[in-house]
Specification:
binds glyoxylic acid, 329 residues, 5-stranded parallel β-sheet, Rossmann fold, 7-stranded parallel β-sheet, 15% strand, 2 domains
Protein backbone atom coordinates (compact mmCIF):
# COMPACT_ATOMS: atom_id res chain seq x y z
CA UNK A 1 0.00 0.00 0.00
CA UNK A 2 1.25 3.50 -0.78
CA UNK A 3 1.90 5.81 2.16
CA UNK A 4 0.60 9.34 2.63
CA UNK A 5 1.13 12.03 5.21
CA UNK A 6 -1.77 14.25 6.23
CA UNK A 7 0.11 17.14 7.77
CA UNK A 8 -2.81 18.81 9.58
CA UNK A 9 -5.91 17.93 11.53
CA UNK A 10 -8.83 17.58 9.06
CA UNK A 11 -12.30 15.99 9.09
CA UNK A 12 -11.91 12.40 10.40
CA UNK A 13 -14.22 11.02 7.70
CA UNK A 14 -11.81 12.33 5.05
CA UNK A 15 -9.02 10.41 6.79
CA UNK A 16 -11.26 7.32 6.60
CA UNK A 17 -11.63 7.87 2.84
CA UNK A 18 -7.87 8.06 2.43
CA UNK A 19 -7.44 4.88 4.46
CA UNK A 20 -9.39 2.97 1.81
CA UNK A 21 -6.40 3.49 -0.49
CA UNK A 22 -3.36 4.32 1.60
CA UNK A 23 -1.46 3.78 4.78
CA UNK A 24 -2.12 7.15 6.41
CA UNK A 25 0.23 8.96 8.79
CA UNK A 26 -2.04 11.67 10.22
CA UNK A 27 -0.75 14.57 12.23
CA UNK A 28 -3.84 15.35 14.28
CA UNK A 29 -1.91 17.73 16.53
CA UNK A 30 0.08 20.95 16.39
CA UNK A 31 1.54 22.29 13.15
CA UNK A 32 4.63 20.27 12.23
CA UNK A 33 7.93 22.11 12.46
CA UNK A 34 10.27 21.95 9.45
CA UNK A 35 12.41 19.10 10.87
CA UNK A 36 9.42 17.04 11.94
CA UNK A 37 7.72 17.57 8.57
CA UNK A 38 10.86 16.35 6.75
CA UNK A 39 11.10 13.34 9.06
CA UNK A 40 7.44 12.35 8.65
CA UNK A 41 7.31 12.91 4.87
CA UNK A 42 10.57 11.03 4.14
CA UNK A 43 8.99 7.63 3.33
CA UNK A 44 5.72 8.91 1.79
CA UNK A 45 4.34 8.70 -1.75
CA UNK A 46 2.04 11.66 -1.26
CA UNK A 47 1.05 14.33 1.24
CA UNK A 48 -1.93 16.51 2.07
CA UNK A 49 -1.03 19.93 3.42
CA UNK A 50 -2.80 23.16 4.34
CA UNK A 51 -0.34 26.00 4.05
CA UNK A 52 2.70 23.99 5.21
CA UNK A 53 5.86 25.19 3.43
CA UNK A 54 7.08 22.66 0.87
CA UNK A 55 10.35 23.50 -0.88
CA UNK A 56 13.45 21.84 -2.28
CA UNK A 57 14.69 20.55 1.09
CA UNK A 58 11.41 18.79 1.90
CA UNK A 59 11.20 17.29 -1.59
CA UNK A 60 14.82 16.11 -1.40
CA UNK A 61 14.08 14.47 1.95
CA UNK A 62 11.23 12.47 0.37
CA UNK A 63 12.56 10.62 -2.69
CA UNK A 64 9.32 8.63 -3.27
CA UNK A 65 7.01 11.64 -2.98
CA UNK A 66 4.97 12.19 -6.19
CA UNK A 67 2.23 14.60 -5.14
CA UNK A 68 1.47 17.23 -2.51
CA UNK A 69 -2.19 18.19 -2.31
CA UNK A 70 -2.85 21.56 -0.68
CA UNK A 71 -6.20 22.09 1.01
CA UNK A 72 -6.42 25.72 -0.15
CA UNK A 73 -6.77 27.53 -3.43
CA UNK A 74 -3.63 29.58 -2.71
CA UNK A 75 -0.40 27.62 -2.94
CA UNK A 76 2.24 30.19 -2.12
CA UNK A 77 3.48 27.68 0.47
CA UNK A 78 4.72 25.54 -2.46
CA UNK A 79 8.00 26.37 -4.17
CA UNK A 80 6.74 25.44 -7.63
CA UNK A 81 10.21 25.71 -9.22
CA UNK A 82 11.35 23.00 -6.80
CA UNK A 83 8.25 20.91 -7.56
CA UNK A 84 8.94 21.16 -11.29
CA UNK A 85 12.64 20.36 -10.88
CA UNK A 86 11.75 17.25 -8.85
CA UNK A 87 8.79 16.25 -11.06
CA UNK A 88 6.47 16.38 -8.06
CA UNK A 89 2.86 17.33 -8.71
CA UNK A 90 1.20 20.08 -6.67
CA UNK A 91 -2.58 20.35 -6.47
CA UNK A 92 -4.96 22.87 -4.87
CA UNK A 93 -8.69 23.30 -4.18
CA UNK A 94 -10.09 26.06 -6.41
CA UNK A 95 -13.74 26.93 -7.10
CA UNK A 96 -15.40 25.13 -4.17
CA UNK A 97 -14.61 28.10 -1.92
CA UNK A 98 -15.47 30.95 -4.29
CA UNK A 99 -18.89 31.84 -2.91
CA UNK A 100 -18.12 31.44 0.80
CA UNK A 101 -14.98 33.51 0.42
CA UNK A 102 -16.81 36.20 -1.54
CA UNK A 103 -19.53 36.30 1.13
CA UNK A 104 -16.89 36.76 3.76
CA UNK A 105 -15.20 39.55 1.80
CA UNK A 106 -18.50 41.40 1.93
CA UNK A 107 -18.90 40.68 5.63
CA UNK A 108 -15.48 42.18 6.39
CA UNK A 109 -15.95 45.13 4.05
CA UNK A 110 -19.32 45.95 5.56
CA UNK A 111 -18.03 45.49 9.10
CA UNK A 112 -15.17 47.89 8.34
CA UNK A 113 -17.35 50.46 6.55
CA UNK A 114 -20.05 50.43 9.22
CA UNK A 115 -17.68 50.05 12.17
CA UNK A 116 -19.44 46.95 13.45
CA UNK A 117 -16.56 45.38 15.40
CA UNK A 118 -15.40 48.70 16.79
CA UNK A 119 -18.85 49.66 18.05
CA UNK A 120 -19.50 46.19 19.43
CA UNK A 121 -16.30 46.30 21.49
CA UNK A 122 -17.36 49.69 22.81
CA UNK A 123 -20.82 48.41 23.71
CA UNK A 124 -19.41 45.30 25.45
CA UNK A 125 -17.10 47.57 27.42
CA UNK A 126 -20.21 49.16 28.95
CA UNK A 127 -19.65 52.56 27.35
CA UNK A 128 -23.10 53.03 25.78
CA UNK A 129 -25.00 55.64 27.74
CA UNK A 130 -27.04 57.52 25.15
CA UNK A 131 -27.85 57.62 21.46
CA UNK A 132 -25.85 60.23 19.64
CA UNK A 133 -26.18 61.66 16.14
CA UNK A 134 -22.48 61.22 15.44
CA UNK A 135 -21.85 57.88 17.11
CA UNK A 136 -19.76 55.58 14.92
CA UNK A 137 -20.41 57.32 11.63
CA UNK A 138 -19.25 55.10 8.81
CA UNK A 139 -19.33 55.15 5.04
CA UNK A 140 -22.04 53.84 2.72
CA UNK A 141 -21.70 50.86 0.47
CA UNK A 142 -24.93 51.39 -1.49
CA UNK A 143 -24.19 53.44 -4.58
CA UNK A 144 -20.46 53.67 -3.85
CA UNK A 145 -17.48 52.50 -5.92
CA UNK A 146 -16.07 49.04 -5.28
CA UNK A 147 -12.44 48.50 -6.33
CA UNK A 148 -11.46 44.85 -6.72
CA UNK A 149 -7.76 44.06 -7.08
CA UNK A 150 -7.49 40.54 -8.48
CA UNK A 151 -10.38 39.63 -10.76
CA UNK A 152 -10.09 35.85 -10.69
CA UNK A 153 -12.87 33.49 -9.67
CA UNK A 154 -13.26 34.89 -6.15
CA UNK A 155 -12.91 38.49 -7.30
CA UNK A 156 -15.67 37.91 -9.83
CA UNK A 157 -17.94 36.26 -7.24
CA UNK A 158 -17.37 39.26 -4.98
CA UNK A 159 -18.04 41.78 -7.76
CA UNK A 160 -21.21 39.94 -8.80
CA UNK A 161 -22.71 40.72 -5.38
CA UNK A 162 -22.17 44.47 -5.90
CA UNK A 163 -25.16 44.71 -8.22
CA UNK A 164 -27.54 44.42 -5.26
CA UNK A 165 -25.84 47.45 -3.71
CA UNK A 166 -25.97 49.48 -6.95
CA UNK A 167 -22.23 49.86 -6.78
CA UNK A 168 -19.96 51.04 -9.53
CA UNK A 169 -17.34 48.28 -9.95
CA UNK A 170 -13.79 48.97 -11.05
CA UNK A 171 -11.07 46.34 -11.04
CA UNK A 172 -7.40 45.83 -11.53
CA UNK A 173 -5.88 42.54 -12.61
CA UNK A 174 -2.72 41.29 -14.35
CA UNK A 175 -4.79 41.19 -17.51
CA UNK A 176 -8.26 42.36 -18.42
CA UNK A 177 -11.02 39.79 -18.08
CA UNK A 178 -13.14 38.84 -21.11
CA UNK A 179 -15.53 41.57 -22.33
CA UNK A 180 -18.57 39.42 -21.57
CA UNK A 181 -17.45 39.06 -17.93
CA UNK A 182 -16.87 42.82 -17.69
CA UNK A 183 -20.36 43.33 -19.10
CA UNK A 184 -21.96 40.78 -16.76
CA UNK A 185 -20.29 42.34 -13.71
CA UNK A 186 -20.73 45.88 -15.00
CA UNK A 187 -17.04 46.29 -14.14
CA UNK A 188 -14.46 48.45 -15.80
CA UNK A 189 -10.70 48.03 -15.83
CA UNK A 190 -8.48 50.57 -14.09
CA UNK A 191 -4.79 50.88 -13.35
CA UNK A 192 -3.93 50.12 -9.74
CA UNK A 193 -3.29 53.79 -9.01
CA UNK A 194 -6.49 54.95 -10.64
CA UNK A 195 -8.47 52.31 -8.76
CA UNK A 196 -6.95 53.34 -5.43
CA UNK A 197 -7.80 56.99 -6.07
CA UNK A 198 -11.39 56.33 -7.14
CA UNK A 199 -12.63 53.40 -5.03
CA UNK A 200 -14.63 53.88 -1.84
CA UNK A 201 -14.02 50.27 -0.86
CA UNK A 202 -10.96 48.37 -2.02
CA UNK A 203 -10.89 44.57 -1.73
CA UNK A 204 -7.79 42.46 -2.35
CA UNK A 205 -8.38 39.06 -3.92
CA UNK A 206 -5.12 38.38 -5.75
CA UNK A 207 -2.72 35.46 -5.30
CA UNK A 208 0.46 36.05 -3.32
CA UNK A 209 3.56 35.94 -5.50
CA UNK A 210 6.98 37.61 -5.22
CA UNK A 211 5.75 40.34 -7.54
CA UNK A 212 2.60 40.94 -5.47
CA UNK A 213 4.58 41.43 -2.26
CA UNK A 214 3.40 44.69 -0.68
CA UNK A 215 1.04 45.51 -3.55
CA UNK A 216 -0.41 47.87 -0.95
CA UNK A 217 2.21 49.84 0.97
CA UNK A 218 2.54 53.40 2.24
CA UNK A 219 2.58 54.93 -1.26
CA UNK A 220 -0.60 53.09 -2.30
CA UNK A 221 -2.41 53.87 0.95
CA UNK A 222 -1.59 57.53 0.38
CA UNK A 223 -3.53 57.43 -2.89
CA UNK A 224 -6.74 56.20 -1.24
CA UNK A 225 -9.60 58.42 -0.12
CA UNK A 226 -9.70 59.46 3.54
CA UNK A 227 -13.13 57.80 3.73
CA UNK A 228 -12.08 54.57 1.99
CA UNK A 229 -11.88 51.05 3.41
CA UNK A 230 -9.39 48.32 2.55
CA UNK A 231 -10.26 44.62 2.87
CA UNK A 232 -7.72 41.81 2.51
CA UNK A 233 -9.08 38.30 2.02
CA UNK A 234 -6.14 37.24 -0.17
CA UNK A 235 -2.85 36.56 1.61
CA UNK A 236 -0.61 38.14 4.16
CA UNK A 237 2.32 39.89 2.49
CA UNK A 238 0.16 41.53 -0.18
CA UNK A 239 -0.31 44.40 2.27
CA UNK A 240 2.50 46.04 4.20
CA UNK A 241 0.80 45.58 7.58
CA UNK A 242 3.06 48.07 9.39
CA UNK A 243 2.25 50.77 6.83
CA UNK A 244 -1.45 49.93 7.07
CA UNK A 245 -1.49 50.15 10.87
CA UNK A 246 0.15 53.56 10.58
CA UNK A 247 -2.35 54.76 7.95
CA UNK A 248 -5.26 53.57 10.11
CA UNK A 249 -3.87 55.24 13.21
CA UNK A 250 -3.43 58.52 11.35
CA UNK A 251 -6.90 58.11 9.75
CA UNK A 252 -5.37 58.36 6.28
CA UNK A 253 -7.97 55.76 5.36
CA UNK A 254 -11.18 55.19 7.31
CA UNK A 255 -11.02 51.50 8.16
CA UNK A 256 -9.79 48.07 7.17
CA UNK A 257 -10.97 44.47 7.30
CA UNK A 258 -8.23 41.86 7.45
CA UNK A 259 -8.52 38.08 7.37
CA UNK A 260 -4.86 37.43 6.49
CA UNK A 261 -1.62 38.82 7.89
CA UNK A 262 2.11 38.94 7.32
CA UNK A 263 3.61 36.15 9.43
CA UNK A 264 0.24 34.77 10.58
CA UNK A 265 -0.82 33.34 12.98
CA UNK A 266 1.35 36.01 14.59
CA UNK A 267 0.40 39.50 13.55
CA UNK A 268 1.92 42.91 13.61
CA UNK A 269 1.16 44.11 17.16
CA UNK A 270 0.47 47.62 15.86
CA UNK A 271 -2.70 46.29 14.23
CA UNK A 272 -4.04 45.30 17.64
CA UNK A 273 -3.72 48.85 18.89
CA UNK A 274 -5.81 50.59 16.22
CA UNK A 275 -9.59 50.53 16.65
CA UNK A 276 -10.61 51.04 13.03
CA UNK A 277 -9.66 47.59 11.79
CA UNK A 278 -11.66 44.35 11.89
CA UNK A 279 -9.40 41.34 12.39
CA UNK A 280 -10.37 37.71 11.71
CA UNK A 281 -8.16 34.59 11.84
CA UNK A 282 -8.01 33.48 8.16
CA UNK A 283 -11.58 32.15 8.05
CA UNK A 284 -12.89 33.48 4.74
CA UNK A 285 -13.61 29.96 3.45
CA UNK A 286 -14.68 28.64 6.84
CA UNK A 287 -18.20 27.37 6.47
CA UNK A 288 -18.90 23.75 7.32
CA UNK A 289 -19.95 22.94 3.76
CA UNK A 290 -17.04 24.70 2.09
CA UNK A 291 -14.31 23.36 4.37
CA UNK A 292 -15.74 19.86 3.85
CA UNK A 293 -15.74 20.40 0.08
CA UNK A 294 -12.13 21.62 0.22
CA UNK A 295 -10.99 18.65 2.33
CA UNK A 296 -12.72 16.18 0.04
CA UNK A 297 -11.32 17.84 -3.07
CA UNK A 298 -7.83 17.74 -1.55
CA UNK A 299 -8.37 14.02 -0.90
CA UNK A 300 -9.66 13.48 -4.47
CA UNK A 301 -6.52 15.14 -5.81
CA UNK A 302 -4.26 12.96 -3.67
CA UNK A 303 -6.11 9.73 -4.44
CA UNK A 304 -6.21 10.24 -8.20
CA UNK A 305 -2.66 11.61 -8.48
CA UNK A 306 -1.43 8.41 -6.81
CA UNK A 307 -3.31 6.31 -9.37
CA UNK A 308 -6.23 5.26 -7.20
CA UNK A 309 -10.00 5.77 -7.17
CA UNK A 310 -12.43 6.51 -9.99
CA UNK A 311 -10.26 9.25 -11.57
CA UNK A 312 -6.96 7.35 -11.27
CA UNK A 313 -4.19 9.34 -12.93
CA UNK A 314 -6.38 12.41 -13.63
CA UNK A 315 -6.36 14.62 -10.53
CA UNK A 316 -8.98 17.39 -10.85
CA UNK A 317 -6.72 20.32 -9.93
CA UNK A 318 -3.10 19.90 -11.01
CA UNK A 319 -1.05 23.09 -10.62
CA UNK A 320 1.86 21.82 -12.74
CA UNK A 321 0.26 19.17 -15.00
CA UNK A 322 3.39 18.90 -17.15
CA UNK A 323 5.05 16.67 -14.53
CA UNK A 324 2.26 14.07 -14.65
CA UNK A 325 3.70 10.78 -15.90
CA UNK A 326 7.34 11.92 -15.53
CA UNK A 327 9.73 9.96 -13.34
CA UNK A 328 10.59 11.52 -10.02
CA UNK A 329 13.93 13.32 -10.09
C1 LIG B 1 -7.26 29.99 1.78
O1 LIG B 1 -6.67 30.94 2.16
C2 LIG B 1 -7.05 29.39 0.52
O2 LIG B 1 -6.10 29.75 -0.21
O3 LIG B 1 -7.84 28.51 0.16
Amino acid sequence: MQKVLVARPIFPDVIERLKQYFEVDWNDGDVLGADELQRRIADKDGALTAGDPIGAAVLAAAPRLRVVSNMAVGYNNFDMAAFNAANVLGTNTPDVLNESTADFGWALMMAAARRIAESEHWLRAGKWEKWSYDGFLGSDLFGSTLGVIGMGRIGQALARRARGFSMNVIYHNRSRVAPQIEAELNASYASKEDLLRRADHVVLVLPYTAENHHTIGAAELALMKLTATLTNIARGGIVDDAALAEALREKRIAAAGLDVFEGEPKLNPALLTVPNVVLTPHIASATEATRRAMANLAADNLISALGEGPRAGCPPNPINPDVIGKARS
